[in-house]
UniProtKB/TrEMBL annotation:
Cofactor note (record): Binds 1 or 2 [4Fe-4S] cluster. One cluster is coordinated with 3 cysteines and an exchangeable S-adenosyl-L-methionine.
Organism: Odocoileus virginianus
InterPro entries: Elp3/MiaA/NifB-like_rSAM, Methylthiotransferase, Methylthiotransferase_CS, Methylthiotransferase_N, Methylthiotransferase_N_sf, MiaB-like_arc_euk, rSAM, rSAM_horseshoe
Protein name: tRNA-t(6)A37 methylthiotransferase
EC number: 2.8.4.5
Membrane-spanning residues: 555-574
Organism classification: Eukaryota, Metazoa, Chordata, Craniata, Vertebrata
Keyword vocabulary terms for this entry: 4Fe-4S, Endoplasmic reticulum, Iron, Iron-sulfur, Membrane, Metal-binding, S-adenosyl-L-methionine, Transferase, Transmembrane, Transmembrane helix, tRNA processing
Stored PROSITE patterns: MTTASE_N, MTTASE_RADICAL, RADICAL_SAM, TRAM
Enzyme class: transferase
Localization annotation: Endoplasmic reticulum membrane
Described function: Catalyzes the methylthiolation of N6-threonylcarbamoyladenosine (t(6)A), leading to the formation of 2-methylthio-N6-threonylcarbamoyladenosine (ms(2)t(6)A) at position 37 in tRNAs that read codons beginning with adenine.
């Protein structure tokens, strides 16, 4: 193998120095002419890096949250509780969706359109890169749907843990809490009633008296989410009512999936609860009873008639009939017949003159014939319900009715339209023009032109927008009527009565901040504060370690280069002086 060769051989490394190169002593004497270049540090940027937390740190409790709720008054109450807890922990509840950091979407599973709105809102939030927490009956009933994958979910009985779910979601985690509340193995009504809340209307308190129901209706998806009946104890409900009145509330709504079934699981009853509640209602304040199915109210007709006569209880009851065909009711598994419904309505109309009966009807349930539908039409024509909720049937996934043979879509639409026409053919309030009524003013109309009040029978009365009327009991003369309302002119010499025993909370103000919750809040905020401080300390420590490591690395490099140069210079000096 040929050996490597070159033209000039070097005996040693010193041979690379030529005669033209400067000598070491020459370089030494020229060093005084070297001017060091000073590298200036960006002091402002340096200090900012020192004091700011790392880019991947997140401090919960300071973000803006937008809450959207669909569905019934029970769902609205849940939304108020979640808003109250989040606000109490420092989050800002905003009405501007685009300005929010996180969207809390509280869903309804009763009908397809409500779920469609819910799904579209999720898609929009994802397009806008918002953090998302889902609540309500849709994710509770079907948490494994594809469009819910990877998203945080809080169950209908876990709303007292909404702060935890929101905190983890803001940190980038996906959390799902879907369990049931139990005490010694017995299912409870849900989260505690004394939690903080933000009422949408500071004058109206919505109290859920129980969750779930005893029925198994073949079309109902809500049962999958809310489950079987679980009632709150009477003393807890009374305490919640008392607290509400202390905060300026003048109207209470009792709500649940079926108020008539209240207490059957705890050895009590709806009348027993109502008699206790009317004892604590201030004079002039009112109570409105929510929906009750016919089977359970039948047992308490006498007592219910007496309660609905009480001056502080609206003479109003919502009793869904759904269909006037016994054949259809049997397919729905409604557990009553049309005769039962008529017996309830006739008895209450006789014992409580003027009572408002509201009802629901489903058009186009599977198997409904033209004859079945005509029986429903006759019922509406006979009773002329002043409040009628007409719903086209929607098959909900996972329900028995979804597997039944469906009525053609065009037929369902036609029947819904026909029943709506009949409903709008009569005006239930024409005969009340000229009457003088006491009305309780609690809201503003959608068009912002009037205040909305309700009379003894929970009929809507529009009154002039006089700020002194809000939250007051006012005497008015009825001068006009429409399909869904009357208009009243305040009597000039009438006294305006204030039913509230204290000043109402401001809109958006948190209610129900008990001493126990304040203590829990203080501990949590201290924990967050310590965590934040620790995060910043850890961040500063991490940056200091990195800087020390850089300095050590730079020093080692410089030492290595220095030693190499020193060795080179020493070798040159030896060469020169030899």
């Amino acid at each position: 193998m040929p050996s490597a060769s070159c033209d000039t051989f070097l005996d040693d490394i010193e041979d690379i120095v030529s005669q033209e190169d400067s000598k070491p002593q020459d370089r030494h004497f020229s060093r005084k002419h070297v001017v060091p270049k000073v590298r200036r540090r960006n002091t402002q940027k340096y200090l900012q890096e020192e004091n700011s937390p790392p880019s991947d740190s997140t401090i919960p409790g300071i973000q803006k949250i937008w809450i959207r709720t669909w569905g019934c008054s029970h769902n609205n109450s849940d939304g108020e509780y979640m808003a109250g807890q989040l606000a109490a922990y420092g989050y800002k509840i905003t009405e501007n969706a685009s300005d929010a950091d996180l969207w809390l979407l509280n869903s309804c599973t009763v009908k397809n359109p409500a779920e469609d709105h819910f799904r579209n809102s999720i898609k929009k939030a994802q397009e806008e890169n918002k953090k998302i927490v889902l609540a309500g009956c849709v994710p509770q009933a079907q948490p494994r749907q594809d469009y819910l994958k990877g998203l945080s979910i809080i169950g209908v009985q876990q709303i007292d843990r909404v702060v935890e779910v929101v905190e983890e979601t803001i940190k980038g985690h996906s959390v799902r809490l879907l369990g049931q509340k139990k005490d010694n193995g017995k299912r409870l009504g849900g989260a505690r009633l004394d939690l903080p809340k933000i009422r949408k209307n500071p004058l109206i308190e919505i109290i859920s008296i129980n969750t779930g129901c005893l029925n198994a209706c073949t079309y109902c998806k809500t049962k999958h989410a809310r489950g079987n009946l679980a009632s709150y104890p009477i003393d807890e409900l009374v305490d919640r009512a008392k607290q509400s009145f202390q905060e300026g509330v003048c109207e209470i709504w009792l709500t649940s999936e079926d108020t008539g079934a209240y207490g059957r699981d705890i050895g009590s009853s709806l009348p027993a609860l109502l008699w206790k509640l009317v004892e604590v209602i201030p004079e002039g304040a009112m109570l409105r009873l929510g929906m009750t199915n016919p089977p359970y109210i039948l047992e308490h007709l006498e007592e219910m008639a007496k309660i609905l006569h009480h001056p502080r209880v609206y003479a109003f009851l919502h009793i869904p009939v759904q269909s006037a065909s016994d054949t259809v009711l049997m397919e729905m598994k409604r557990e009553y017949c049309v005769a039962d419904f008529k017996r309830v309505v006739d008895f209450l109309k006789d014992k409580v003159p003027g009572i408002t009966i509201a009802t629901d009807i489903i058009c186009g349930f599977p198997g409904e014939t033209d004859q079945d539908f005509q029986e429903t039409v006759k019922l509406v024509e006979e009773y002329k319900f002043p409040s009628l909720f007409i719903n086209q049937f929607y098959p909900r996934p996972g329900t028995p009715a979804a597997k039944m043979e469906q009525v053609p879509a065009q037929v369902k639409k036609q029947r819904t339209k026909e029943l709506s026409r009949i409903f709008h053919s009569y005006n239930p309030y024409d005969h009340k023009i000229g009457q003088r009524q006491q009305v309780l003013v609690t809201e503003e109309s959608f068009d912002s032109k009037f205040y909305v009040a309700h009379n003894r029978f929970y009929e809507q009365v529009l009154v002039p927008k006089n700020p002194t009327f809000m939250g007051k009991m006012v005497e008015v003369d009825i001068y006009e009527s429409g399909k869904h309302f009357m208009k009243g002119q305040p009597v000039s010499d009438a006294k305006v009565y204030t039913p509230s025993i204290s000043k109402p909370l401001a809109r958006g103000e948190v209610s129900g901040l008990t001493e126990e919750f304040r203590n829990r809040l203080g501990n949590h905020l201290n924990s967050v504060s310590h965590t934040s401080a620790a995060t910043q300390r850890d961040s500063a420590s991490s940056r200091m370690v990195l800087r020390l490591q850089r300095l050590h690395r730079d020093f080692a490099l410089k030492m290595s280069v220095g030693l190499a140069l020193f060795a080179l210079l020493l070798a040159l000096l030896v060469k020169v002086y030899n």
